[in-house]
Write a structure and sequence with these properties.
This protein has 15 helices and 25 strands. It is an alpha/beta fold. The protein has a domain of about 290 residues: Alpha-Beta Barrel (TIM Barrel), CATH 3.20.20. α7 runs parallel beside α9. One of its GO terms (molecular function) is hydrolase activity, acting on carbon-nitrogen (but not peptide) bonds, in linear amides.
Length: about 450
């Protein structure tokens, strides 16, 4: 007997570039039958008119901070409700706790809402060794940092992330001191650029140099917040050209014309508003007594001084350039979701359904099959998740069932945690995790450790 049969739906056949009709039979966490299934099952899900997609894979998000906010899942629950079944955390150089602590907490809680993979956040350890944001780490600090990177890889990290904009004192030499020390060229490197807007093209060229020197899988993080201020066309031309030469290079992007980060970070150093061509009133506060207030100069400076770790939203990007980054043949969809105290940017709860609703159905920026490929198959290949991201007999039963005529994001900038519409079911490792926006099981996910792959994987 099967555990679940999903009958009457259509699923993406990426090899043919179209959708196939067929029932899916699930048992013991795997899809074991595809077709006109006659085997009995404990549960039947009727999916006529619906898309049965591989579970969405968020290749760029920011995991829970168990040390500061308690042993509870917040952002992972948001991810789950919008159809995400696997997440890669530890991006932008940010890592909230050592990997051993993160894994132990998941184990102690009996699992997680999603399958979790992690990067080592270089900036987090840089701060711990006393390297200031505007100065290069000295030789002794770099030695300690390299040891920390090695320790975290032994705990199962998939690679490294660097937030150059947050610690502009780091240069290519400091970054390469880490990357050149590892022979495994299938490790994943995620980099938050040095500069945006008018300086974004030079920042991309710097990342390309690092990618070429490292020979590792290299991800340019959240391209939209780097170049969607008038430089997207030039950026995409450059990246596409470089990707044609180096298939290990790629990028991710999210579907909003506003970014979010801590107000005390170097992102908001003097001159930022001149670079963006914006003013203080483009900054929305997200927490505490100031929640949902836009800044003036006085309020901005007050919060930056008194609450430097508050997440703020900066409305500085152009909508048409967001669409460009999404529609480009290369690239992946990712949320860059980050949450403090349950609040933040709506991308943590709405990214994937927003792409499906706004950019696929309404604006027709790209076909549905291509959007799903950017959310599933491409990140799965990137992360060596050979049993995820595509539906075939024997694949992991991580699935998202949605109505293509109704799916859309629900979260907005005033209520950033509202769930989406049109997602009927989310299945994680063969277990129904979400049933019409109601979480039924948020412990079906597990931590996935990196395993060395054969050279040549991209």
């Amino acid at each position: 007997m099967l555990d679940i049969i999903i009958e009457g739906g259509s699923y993406p056949d990426y090899g043919k570039g179209t959708f196939a009709a067929g029932d899916l039979g699930i048992k013991d966490g795997k899809v074991v039958e595809i077709g006109n299934i006659k085997t009995p099952a404990q549960r039947r899900i009727h999916a006529a008119g619906k898309i049965v997609s591989p579970g969405f894979i968020d290749i760029h998000m920011h995991e829970e901070d168990f040390l500061q906010e308690g042993e509870q899942f917040v952002i992972a629950d948001m991810m789950l409700k919008m159809g995400v079944t696997t997440c890669l955390g530890g991006n932008c150089g940010v890592q909230h706790q050592d990997l051993e602590v993160f894994k132990d907490t998941i184990n102690r809680l009996g699992g997680s809402p999603v399958n979790y993979l992690m990067l080592v956040g270089y900036n987090a350890y840089r701060k711990k060794v006393g390297a200031g944001p505007y100065t290069k780490a000295d030789a002794e600090q770099q030695k300690i940092l390299l040891d920390k990177m090695k320790q975290q890889l032994k705990q199962g990290a998939y690679g490294f992330s660097f937030g150059i904009e947050y610690d502009p004192g780091m240069d290519i030499d400091e970054i390469m001191n880490v990357l050149k020390s590892f022979e495994d060229k299938n490790l994943f490197v995620s980099v938050h650029y040095r500069s945006d807007a008018a300086k974004s093209i030079e920042a991309i060229k710097e990342m390309v140099r690092i990618a070429d020197q490292s020979q590792m899988k290299f991800q340019i993080s959240h391209l939209s917040s780097c170049t969607a201020m008038g430089w997207m066309t030039e950026a995409l031309n450059l990246i596409n050209q470089e990707m044609d030469k180096n298939p290990k290079l790629n990028y991710d992007t999210y579907p909003y014309c506003a970014f979010s980060t801590e107000i005390g970070s170097a992102v908001f150093d003097d001159g930022c508003f001149d670079i963006w061509g914006k003013s203080y009133d483009s900054i929305l506060l997200t927490d505490g007594e100031y929640r949902n207030r836009y800044c003036d100069k006085e309020l901005f400076e007050k919060v930056r001084k008194e609450h430097p770790e508050m997440l703020v939203v900066a409305f500085v990007m152009n909508e048409e350039e967001i669409a460009q980054a999404i529609a480009n043949p290369y690239g992946m969809i990712a949320s860059d979701g980050i949450i403090n105290h349950g609040k933040g940017h709506p991308r943590a709860a709405g990214t994937f359904p927003r792409v499906l609703g706004k950019y696929v159905r309404e604006d027709k920026v790209l076909p549905l099959i291509d959007a799903l490929r950017k959310m599933t198959l491409e990140p799965a290949k990137r992360l060596n998740l050979n049993k995820k991201g595509c539906i075939f007999e024997g694949c992991d039963a991580d699935l998202t069932i949605f109505d293509p005529e109704n799916v859309k994001d629900g979260a907005d900038f005033s209520e950033s945690d509202l769930p989406p519409e049109g997602i009927d079911y989310v299945i994680v490792n063969g277990k129904i995790a979400v049933d019409h926006n109601q979480i039924k099981n948020n412990r079906a996910g597990r931590f996935i450790s990196y395993e060395m792959m054969p050279e040549g994987s991209i």
